[in-house]
Predict the structure of L-lactate dehydrogenase complex protein LldF.
Amino acid sequence: MSGTFVGMPAFPEAARAALGDTQLRHNLAHATGVIRGKRAAVVGELEQAGIWEDLRLAGAAVKQRALDDLATHLEELERTLTAAGATVHWARDAAEANAVVAEVARAHGADEVVKVKSMATQEIGLNEALEAEGIAAWETDLAELIVQLGEDLPSHILVPAIHRNRAEIREIFLRRMADVGRPAPAGLTDEPAVLAGAAREHLREKFLRAKVGVSGANFAVAETGTLVVVESEGNGRMCLTLPEVLVSVVGIEKVVPTWAELDPLLRLLPRSSTGERMNPYTSTWSGTTPGDGPQEVHVVLLDNGRTRALADETGRQALRCIRCSACLNVCPVYERTGGHAYGSVYPGPIGAILNPLLADPDEPDAAARAQTDSLPYASSLCGACFEACPVRIDIPEVLVHLRSKVVDSHRADRVPKAEAVAMRAAAWVLADASRLGLVEKASGLSGRVLSRLSRTTLPGGRAAAGRLPGPGAAAWTGARDLPAPPAESFRAWWARTGGGSGEPATDLPSRTVADAPPPTTPYDAPHPVAAPAVSPQPNAAPGRVPPHRSDDNLDAPADPTGARAEVLGRVRTALEGVAPTPEPVVAPVGTPGSPAEVVDLFAERVADYRAVVERVGADDLADHLASLFAPTDRVVVPPGTDPALLAALGERAVADDDLSAADLDALDAVVTTASAGVAETGTIVLDHGPGQGRRALSLVPDRHVCLVRADQVVPDVPDAVARLAAAVEDGRALTWISGPSATSDIELDRVEGVHGPRRLHVVVVEDRA
């Protein structure tokens, strides 16, 4: 990959243009400020509980454990996905990944696909590749739709259209929607709720007719073959559930070793990205499920430079990234320049390290190389990004490392850069004391002259040198106050005062660096090793090899293109000498309250998401359920629903006899039970067993009424992950729901009800006997 958008200038030039856009700077300051505030509130809850930093350590350790034995986990993921009915493909680069998606679409006669928001598919240029094959790729995330219709580029990981205001979005919808589908309403206003409603209607017809869906994945669990997508609007659920065929393009770094280790990541990602305890929707699925969702599933495991990053001992930590955008929202450089200045799908601090790490070092395009080389310098090295990163990527460390690589790559240039010339001159001066003395005298003379002529005095009374002429110096001093050189050097002061004693000192010896003796203690003692960013894990016991790593237990999968063998070979070469960590990471947990307190907290947190929540006795449930619907409402009920509830609904109940998506769209509501409720996050979880229905049932109707027994409510995410492990092992898909579908993609104004149900009604059923 080139790592950059075609034709984008190097960061300094692009940043200069962005700084002149006052509307952009206003939008960025508002958006990043709001997101920082929301994140601080929900992170503060865990800081107060004393577990946030330990949770960060656990999340980093999970991702690092996956990377340290990546080949093993990828092979296990391939095996479990295949056993679950998925077809696994391997792609060395963007071209191979795009070819797989296009081939699947052509095989099903599809001339269009619907897409979940996916940075991996943006990275490989999938939309453009499909367009070249005569296949339209429709972005379904609201912000991505705005970017696509506006023929624009994304500028933020979380909010790609952050640079657009509501008036611009209205104009884009009015001008472009009719060209690609259902037109925008003639009386469209710029209210965020109205704009979101127009997007809902425009995309609804595409969801209902699409044969093929395309997604990425936030995580891929090797142990169970489970893919995970975290989203807010419900467009992800639409793409993952309604089409006949699903293709997921997954970076090889997305692997998580075990189902249990998903826990800390599910707690870290929403808090660090949207500033919520849990995103409205989290979908997990393992291959295919008869009668529920796509019946043909393809997974493309993508390298595209990731093994290059993995081979860099300092830079490989960047592959721990979970794409939360927390580093962007605290970065003073990003806040002032925006995402387009980085020239890539990955902007901000993480983009400044990830793009150079993924990029081909033999890139023939000089402009692309210059753009990539500029990115490690797009930082003040303030360190705020490391403090915000939920998986403790030391971005400043990697930036400095990459800067050194840029410098090293230009050492053999025929025409050296001005900076290199200056450094060589400084080295020549500093290598000899007599030369240094002459320069000090000249500097002192210039300092005395400037002190008399300067019109600017710095705090403390020192004169400023003003703006200097010449390339580099003029730009640097034009934006900074450069103090005038001191009238007397330190060496001269020491000789004159005897180091402050008042007695003149003897002349300092003059010698070159080569004459200097070797350093003595304490400076020649070994430097202390910095504490690792991730808590160390125990090494594997001698001779202990998990059964799944035995070649005897692994049938060699088909590898018609050789991509599988090459990617796994690259991974093993990159990790040569790295010891795997065999034991799963255990994440910290909070202190739960009593069962009654847990249910109280659950009801409170569900209401926080603007869902309706009621607590009803079991004996009163049937009558209460009947009272929730108008006589003319048509309510779909899944197989396994309690007969007493069916009787209470009467003729309003519609059985799910393989209803089509269009049939479901015409109904008023759905009633389901749940498998679990999570008190800390206000989440209900469906495993789509009896009474819960297939995934489309709780997605397409406009209102979802969910019945949760009080004894199903658990304190926090770790408890839910453990409770649901058996369902995942059985191959069931899970849907985690936290409030109605929602978006904040338009000027960060939250709008409930985008593509999923616009109303969520949770009934907590209590045994009051």
The two ends are 65 Å apart (CA to CA). Residues 87 and 246 are 10 Å apart (CA to CA).
